[in-house]
Every structure is written in C-alpha cells, then in structure tokens.
Amino acid sequence: MAITVQASPASLAWSNYTVTPSRITDPGDGTLVDAYTTFDYNFPNSAPVNNAGVFTIPDPYNIAITPRAQVWSGVRQTTALLSHEQWHYDVATITGRALCRQLARLTGTSLADLRTKIQAAVQLHFHTRAGILQKRYDLDTSHGTNAHYQKIWKDRMTTTLANPAADTMGGFWL
Questions:
Q1: Does position 101 have pLDDT exceeding 90, yes or no?
Q2: Are 102 and 121 spatial neighbours (Cβ–Cβ below 8 Å)?
Q3: pLDDT, position 81
Q4: What CA–CA distance (Å, rounded) separates 70 from 88?
Q5: pLDDT category of residue 1 using cuts at 50, 70 and 90
Q6: Cα distance between residue 43 and residue 174, in whole Å
Q7: pLDDT in tens, 43-64
Q8: What span, in angstroms and rounded, lies between the C-alpha atoms of 166 and 119?
Q9: How far is it, in rounded angstroms, from Cα 48 to Cα 108?
Q10: Which of 36, 42, 112, 146 has the greatest count of CB atoms below 10 A from its CB?
Q11: Average pLDDT in the 152-172 region?
Q12: pTM for this entry
C-alpha cells in the first residue's frame, strides 16, 4: 500500500517563520528560546476502503507535513540556528515514515474502529515519539548551543533521513 509522508517545504527558510516580539517559551521544558519549530500534519480527505467488512486506508494516501515556526525579532537569524530548527522539523518526516508503515498494516472491523486505531498511531508517532526525540535533542544540545552534541544529532538525522526503512535513530524508536 502506498501510504507516504511528505514535508513541504522539505528545507526551512527564515521566510517560513512568524516573527514574534518576545522570546518564546519552549513548551517541552519551559526554556526561553530564540526560535521554536514544530509541525502540522494533514491527512487526505478520502474515505476508508470497506472490503467485506474489513476497513483499510485507501491507496494512495499522502500525509502532508507543514512547518509551524516562530522566531524572536531580537535574534540574529543565523544558518546555525536555522540548522538546529531544521532538525526539529525533520522529526516529522522520520516519525511520519514509521507512522506510514503502521497505517499500511491497519485494519478495522468498522469505520469507528479504524479511526480509533489511526488516532492511536498518530498519537504514538507524531506526539509521543516525536516529543521524546525533540526533548532529548534539546537537552543534549542545550537548545543548539552545544556544538559537539549538535553535530552528533545532525549526523544521526542525516543517516535516518537517507534510509526510508529506518525504524530507530540513535537508539530511539521512531
């Protein structure tokens, strides 16, 4: 089954950010930060397939990812900061791939059953697992100020993005 995820844009630019007059509080840990990046996702408006009482997701099915991003007006919009924020956005792609693999296996005994299973899968991948990765990344990199750990996490992301079948990143399940 062709269930896919696609981020648009794939690479962030400062033009994707809403400028805010005050520093931003990271909802993950309460830290004041210069920029904050997360993502929205949109499922296609297509009806599930009912095959003799077994409900599945239609084929093809593409989950669209878009950025939701803010930057403080008082900060220099540097390449390093944007690179740090890109990692946060890329989490949507890697956890989205894992979500797609799970959705491809889902069946339901009713439309409501399938929807409940889809919601549980979205919660697991886009909220729980993405949240764990985001928090660990910011903790290890001190929100991008620790260059050593920033490089380690960026290298992990590069490797994971290059392998569409990856189901872990740096020991974390996607």
A1: yes
A2: yes
A3: 97
A4: 12
A5: low
A6: 19
A7: 999 899 999 999 999 989 999 9
A8: 22
A9: 10
A10: 36
A11: 94
A12: 0.95
Residue with the two structure tokens 């890329």: 90
Q: What is the amino acid identity at position 90?
A: D
Q: Which long-range CB contacts under 8 A does 12-19 form with residues at least 24 apart?
A: 12/37, 12/67, 12/69, 12/82, 12/85, 12/86, 12/89, 13/82, 14/71, 14/77, 14/82, 16/67, 16/69, 17/69, 17/70, 17/71, 17/77, 18/69, 18/70, 18/71, 19/70, 19/71, 19/72, 19/73
- Confidence (pLDDT) at 170: 86
Structure tokens at 172: 């974390």
Q: Which residues of 129-144 are buried (b: 16+ CB within 10 A; e: fewer)?
A: bbeebbeebbeebebb
- Count of residues for the chain? 174
CA distance 32 to 24: 5
